[in-house]
C-alpha cells in the first residue's frame, strides 16, 4: 500500500478516480446506444452529388451560410442519435477499373457530376432515411444536388459473416 505524501497528492488521486468513473460510465452509455441502434435501426448511406462547379455560383456569404446549415443538420442528426459519420470529399481523385489488358484510372475532374460528400446514418427504414435526406442543406443551396440513399448490408445471409465496424 502506498502512503500519500500530501493533501494535493490525495486530491489528485481522487480526481483521477472520479475521471476514470466518468469515462467508464460515458463509454458504457455509448456502447449501449450503439447496441440499441444496431439492434433496432438499419444503417444507410447518403451519397451526395453535385455538378462539378455547382458551388462556384455561391457568394462567400452564401457559402458560409451553407456550411453553417450543414453544421446544424449534422448537429440535429447527432442529437437524435442518427448520425454515424459524415464528411465532405475533396474534388479530386480517380475512378479505378480493371480491364483484361490492365488497370484504367479515370480522373474524376473529367466527370460533369461528382460525389461531394457522404452521410452514414441510422434509420428505422428506407422511408425514414429518405425523409432525413430531404432535409439536407444541399437541396436549399445547390440546384444540381442529388442524394443517393442506400441501405447498408451489415451481414451476409448465406454465410452469417458480419462486416466489421470501428466501434
Q: What is the topology?
A:
Blueprint: H1 7-40, E1 42-51, H2 60-79, E2 83-88, E3 94-99, E4 102-107, E5 113-123, H3 126-134, H4 138-141, E6 146-151
Antiparallel strand pairs: 1-5, 1-6, 2-5, 3-4
Provide an overview of this structure.
With 167 residues, this protein is of the alpha+beta class. The chain has two domains: 1-40; 42-167, 2-Layer Sandwich (Alpha-Beta Plaits), CATH 3.30.70.1060. Helices cover 40% and strands 27% of the residues. The protein has four helices and six strands. The chain has helices at 7-40, 60-79, 126-134, 138-141, and strands at residues 42-51, 83-88, 94-99, 102-107, 113-123, 146-151. The chain has a four-stranded antiparallel β-sheet with strand order 2-5-1-6. β3 and β4 (102-107) form a beta hairpin. The longest helix has 34 residues, at 7-40. The two termini are 37 Å apart. The relative contact order is 0.19.
Amino acid at each position: 500500500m502506498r502512503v500519500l505524501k500530501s493533501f494535493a497528492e490525495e486530491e489528485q488521486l481522487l480526481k483521477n478516480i472520479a475521471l476514470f468513473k466518468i469515462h467508464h460510465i460515458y463509454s458504457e452509455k455509448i456502447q449501449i446506444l450503439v447496441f440499441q441502434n444496431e439492434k433496432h435501426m438499419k444503417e444507410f448511406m447518403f451519397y451526395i452529388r453535385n455538378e462539378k462547379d455547382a458551388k462556384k455560383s455561391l457568394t462567400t456569404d452564401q457559402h458560409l451560410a451553407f456550411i453553417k446549415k450543414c453544421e446544424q443538420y449534422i448537429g440535429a442528426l447527432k442529437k437524435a442519435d442518427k448520425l454515424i459519420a459524415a464528411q465532405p470529399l475533396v474534388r479530386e481523385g480517380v475512378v479505378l477499373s480493371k480491364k483484361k489488358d490492365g488497370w484504367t484510372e479515370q480522373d474524376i475532374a473529367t466527370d460533369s457530376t461528382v460525389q461531394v460528400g457522404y452521410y452514414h446514418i441510422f434509420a428505422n427504414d428506407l422511408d425514414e432515411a429518405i425523409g432525413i435526406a430531404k432535409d439536407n442543406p444541399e437541396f436549399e443551396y445547390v440546384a444540381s444536388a442529388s442524394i443517393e440513399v442506400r441501405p447498408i448490408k451489415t451481414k451476409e445471409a448465406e454465410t452469417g459473416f458480419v462486416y466489421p465496424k470501428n466501434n
